[in-house]
């Protein structure tokens, strides 16, 4: 085996599959149903069959007081949903939508992490871990699936959110 | 891991190692490693001779077919029809009239559903498929059911991925209108006992369509020996271009079937009072066809014939045996599709790693495999998995490719801490 090459490729892979991602993929947070849900949406990634259901409980003052998800998917899509639910609990829906926009921008490479620096209102925080996906264009949809679903849930769209 | 290709052990039965250099696409690096292409079941690579035949047509002979008196049109028509003859010979059709160019297996199956089956179907009639079909041999029949009120009947499979023949024997004698079934499963690699199924169907007067998309590239196929009514396959799975495929059909069926689409080329005479359809097979080839695709497919058939389908089958079955053996040695692997008769591919899962993650990790080491449901969701449901990883072989693969796959799986385990 060519060491140098394989170390390089391992580097990028390790950046994609960071410890935090693997941890959330193995033991997803907020996994399950939400008895008091007010909003929900389904996310489908027809390419790989990732499928998730997102449940939100939104208060009268427009705050996401709880969130949960169910479904099956690859490490990236499960970790992304897990990190997302962790992050959005406590946010107002408007904030959560802006956050989704920033995250989708960051993983698709349309917004760089520097753009989201100090001037930005939005700190991706832990979710920066998802940025490793940028080197793997075929996996961007996995990382954004939960976020598209959150968009549909908040906007109460009837069709399942799709990454296509 | 990435040993130079020269050190590859030649397979004991046949040595096709010289063929590898016929495929220019294989001579490249992906992510700094020599490409290992193990996704031929999705689409096989093209040899130089196919690429050249298509380029030659575009460079020197392009014109519409069956319509001009000028030289280019004549050349284009000759090349297009020569391809049909080559394909007729390749599958041993009785006549070129039985060989219809389509856009692929999918269109071939839709054509049979709509032109052969639809006119005679009534509410409650039944169509027999199997659990291991590709979506393109399911959805056209579902559409037909919606249109006519007919119903689907499905032959079950067992844990190995083999057809449940006991149930099949009961179903086939229960009065079905057609049996539409894969010759080789694209998700499991199962080779179905086509001869036996057809014999049974004939005893009960049931016409048979075989979906041969995964069979034609890997074994000799003789439609007369099979004695099937319809046989569908795609160019791009047998080293030819995309967007071209074949429907073989018995002449007596084609004679009786109404056209699938209307347009130019499929007519002899058009009047507003009525139109006379063209002879076979042109009645089923409306509009300007995929001329370059047909020519490319003709070249692919000549290439495969030059090597010999028997030799290709022997090479691949030896390599599949090796691949299955090597994969079985990987700790944490679950092989999906362990039928006694198999061809060209192996589906698997590794530990609890999602196939999509596996696909990314092995691609990063230059190894191309397919991951997902393989357009066979009912198969995935049967095995209770969201998808699998699938390594599929073609004549240009060798043991080194398999070794690289296995090594890349070890890396996946490492990344996932397994
Ligand atoms: C068994 C089988 N049937 C049908 C098809 C559909 O072929 P195409 O997409 O070329 O029409 C495929 C290819 O994916 C296949 O493997």
Shape of chain A: globular
Low-pLDDT residue intervals, each spanning 5 or more residues of chain B: 1-11
| Number of spatially distinct domains of chain B | 2
Sheet/helix structural class of chain B: alpha/beta
Mean pLDDT of chain B: 95
DSSP helical segment count of chain A: 5
Percentage of residues in DSSP E strands of chain A: 15-25%
Biggest interface, residues from each chain: A-B, 27 and 26 residues
Shape of chain B: globular
- The secondary-structure element order of chain A is HHEEEHHHE
Furnish the topology, listing elements before pairings.
The complex is a heterodimer of chains A (164) and B (418).
Chain A: H1 3-16, H2 19-26, E1 39-45, E2 50-58, E3 64-72, H3 75-88, H4 93-108, H5 140-155, E4 161-162
Parallel strand pairs in A: 1-4
Antiparallel strand pairs in A: 1-2, 2-3
Helix pairs in contact in A: 2-3, 3-5, 4-5
Chain B: E1 29-30, E2 33-34, E3 36-37, H1 48-61, H2 71-90, E4 99-102, H3 105-117, E5 126-130, H4 139-148, E6 151-155, H5 165-172, E7 178-182, H6 194-203, E8 208-211, H7 223-226, E9 230-234, E10 245-249, H8 251-256, E11 267-271, E12 274-277, H9 291-307, H10 309-328, E13 333-336, E14 345-350, H11 355-363, E15 367-368, E16 370-372, H12 377-383, E17 388-392, H13 399-415
Parallel strand pairs in B: 3-15, 5-6, 5-7, 7-8, 8-9
Antiparallel strand pairs in B: 1-2, 4-10, 9-10, 11-12, 13-14, 14-17, 16-17
Helix pairs in contact in B: 1-9, 2-9, 10-13, 11-13
């Amino acid at each position: 085996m060519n060491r140098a090459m394989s170390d390089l490729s391992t580097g990028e892979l390790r950046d994609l599959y960071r410890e935090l991602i693997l941890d959330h993929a193995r033991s997803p947070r907020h996994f399950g149903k939400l008895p008091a849900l007010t909003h929900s949406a389904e996310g489908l990634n027809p390419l790989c069959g990732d499928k998730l259901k997102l449940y939100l409980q939104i208060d009268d003052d427009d705050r996401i007081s709880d969130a949960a998800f169910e479904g099956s998917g690859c490490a990236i899509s499960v970790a992304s949903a897990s990190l997302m639910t962790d992050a959005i609990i406590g946010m107002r829906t408007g904030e959560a939508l802006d956050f989704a926009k920033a995250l989708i921008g960051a993983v698709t490479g349309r917004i760089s992490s520097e753009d989201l620096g100090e001037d930005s209102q939005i700190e991706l925080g832990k979710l920066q871990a998802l940025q490793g996906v940028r080197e793997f264009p075929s996996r961007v949809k996995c990382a954004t699936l939960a976020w598209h679903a959150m968009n549909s849930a908040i906007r109460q769209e009837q069709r399942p959110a799709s990454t296509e | 891991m990435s040993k130079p290709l020269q050190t590859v052990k030649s397979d004991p039965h046949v040595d096709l190692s010289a063929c590898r250099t016929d495929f220019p696409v294989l001579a490249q690096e992906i992510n700094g490693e020599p490409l290992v292409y193990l996704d031929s079941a999705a689409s096989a690579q093209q040899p130089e001779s196919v690429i050249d035949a298509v380029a030659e047509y575009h460079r020197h002979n392009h014109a519409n077919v069956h319509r001009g008196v000028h030289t280019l049109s004549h050349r284009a028509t000759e090349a297009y029809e020569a391809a049909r003859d080559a394909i007729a010979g390749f599958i041993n059709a009785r006549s070129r009239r039985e060989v219809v160019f389509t856009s692929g297996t999918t269109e071939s199956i839709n054509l049979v559903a709509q032109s052969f089956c639809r006119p005679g179907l009534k509410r409650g009639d039944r169509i027999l498929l199997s659990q291991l079909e590709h979506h393109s041999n399911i959805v056209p029949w579902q559409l037909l059911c919606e249109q006519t009120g007919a119903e689907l009947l499905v032959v079950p499979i067992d844990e190995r991925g083999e057809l449940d023949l006991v149930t099949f024997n009961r179903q086939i004698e229960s009065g079905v209108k057609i049996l539409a079934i894969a010759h080789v499963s694209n998700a499991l690699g199962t080779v179905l006992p086509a001869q036996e199924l057809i014999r049974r169907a004939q005893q009960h007067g049931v016409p048979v369509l075989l979906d041969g998309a995964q069979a034609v590239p890997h074994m000799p196929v003789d439609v007369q020996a099979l004695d099937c009514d319809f046989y569908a396959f795609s160019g791009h799975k047998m080293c030819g271009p995309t967007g071209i495929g074949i429907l073989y059909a018995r002449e007596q069926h084609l004679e009786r079937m109404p056209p699938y689409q209307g347009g130019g080329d499929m007519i002899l005479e058009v009047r507003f009072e009525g139109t006379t359809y063209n002879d076979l097979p042109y009645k089923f080839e409306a509009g300007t066809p995929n001329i370059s695709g047909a020519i490319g497919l003709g070249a692919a058939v000549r290439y495969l014939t030059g090597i010999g389908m028997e030799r290709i089958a022997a090479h691949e079955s030896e390599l599949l045996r090796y691949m299955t053996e090597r994969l079985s040695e990987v700790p944490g692997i679950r092989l999906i599709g362990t039928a006694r008769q198999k061809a060209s591919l192996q589906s698997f899962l590794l530990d609890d790693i999602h196939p999509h993650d596996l696909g990314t990790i092995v691609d990063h080491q230059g190894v191309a495999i397919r991951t997902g449901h393989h357009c066979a969701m009912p198969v995935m449901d049967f095995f209770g998995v969201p998808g699998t990883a699938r390594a599929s072989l073609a004549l240009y693969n060798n043991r080194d490719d398999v070794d690289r796959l296995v090594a890349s799986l070890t890396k996946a385990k490492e990344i996932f801490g397994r």
